[in-house]
Amino acid sequence: MPRMLDVSDDVRAEIGDEEADRLLAGDNAPGAYDCTSCRTPGDSEQERTSTVLFIGEETAVLAFAHATCIPSQVVSVAEEQLKGAVRSITGEPADGAPATVPAPAGPAAPDAAPPAARQATLGVTCGLVLVEDDLRPALVVEPNSPIARPGSIGLDDDFLPLLQEQGFRPVADVSVLPVRGDGWSVLLAMGQLHAVLQGSGEAGSQNAWWKAHQPLPVSDGWRAAVNKTQTVLVYAAPHGSIGQQPREDLMRDALEKAAAQGRLVAMAMPLAGT
Question: Compositional bias (Low complexity) spans (predicted)?
Fold first, then answer.
């Protein structure tokens, strides 16, 4: 039976006309599916459904989502991130991946690649932040040690200047919505947080600025909020500014304190893929 599938030109170009036509005819497409964005059931025979193609260096995964959640598109993902998504579907363990213990305010990922030369890790915490009278999905990024500028031999912490050079803006008031950045996005695949992506300079290409060692679960409230806005507010502060707060109200207090001290930058990033 023909399916109510949306296959974008980009997806068609990757999978080929023959495979795209088979999908639309219902040969290789499921009727019922779990939306790769909101994780609730969908039916491509009854409602508009988007095809979302995740592409790594060697692996490609075709997923399905409610068209009301996300449009059909191609999402470039680091190979290890894509393998992690496949493992999350099949239930296979991630070889050598450390266990991640979520903080009460949201999942925290203690191991990630920093944006500068000095070896450090980035802590990333999910939470809901009240901005302009609406609860917004947010990520709070804080290194576990100072970040030096590449090539620097000094001890200065250049984390905020480096981010401002990439489009982040200082936060004077947490109640004001941050500006939307160019080239950045947040990857939420199969209902889990995978990475923060940054444009690589090549047309339409993105690299993982931060990526989880294994996909991180997010709360139902956080996922509902991001599905509503399709935007994630990403806040960043230098080492020692925020800390692991046990509740979202305490995280908000820490953000406001960091902003008052001129130690907070932010950017509103679109949702990538799901």
Answer: 93-114
